[in-house]
Write a structure and sequence with these properties.
The protein is α+β, with helices and mostly antiparallel strands. Helix content is 42%, strand content 33%.
């Protein structure tokens, strides 16, 4: 399984519904579990800055990761980016191979 980082920015309409945030989040997570049962979430964070949320998860391939991003956008995300995460030690090994 590959590790991915999902960066999500909510739409202005959804951002105004902070009291409903937990319900919206559960709906999103339920849809991901239904459509992508092989995805394993590692961590969820609310963050301050350019993005609203950061999720770390494992998925078998980039198409499954794309589905996670699409489900996020279908549930009110203004943008949702899934980035591949490479463990630091593996990254160092890759640099030594060059």
């Amino acid at each position: 399984m590959q590790t991915y980082i999902l960066l999500t920015k909510l739409s202005p309409e959804v951002s105004k519904k902070m009291k409903e945030r937990m319900q919206i989040g559960h709906l999103w997570l339920d849809q991901v579990k239904e459509k992508c049962p092989e995805v394993k979430f590692i961590s969820h964070y609310a963050i301050l800055g350019q993005y609203d949320f950061l999720d770390i998860y494992e998925a078998p391939d980039s198409e499954t990761a794309a589905k996670v991003s699409i489900i996020s956008q279908a549930n009110g995300a203004f943008s949702a980016e899934s980035l591949i995460a490479i463990p630091y030690r593996r990254f160092i090994q890759l640099t030594e191979e060059i």
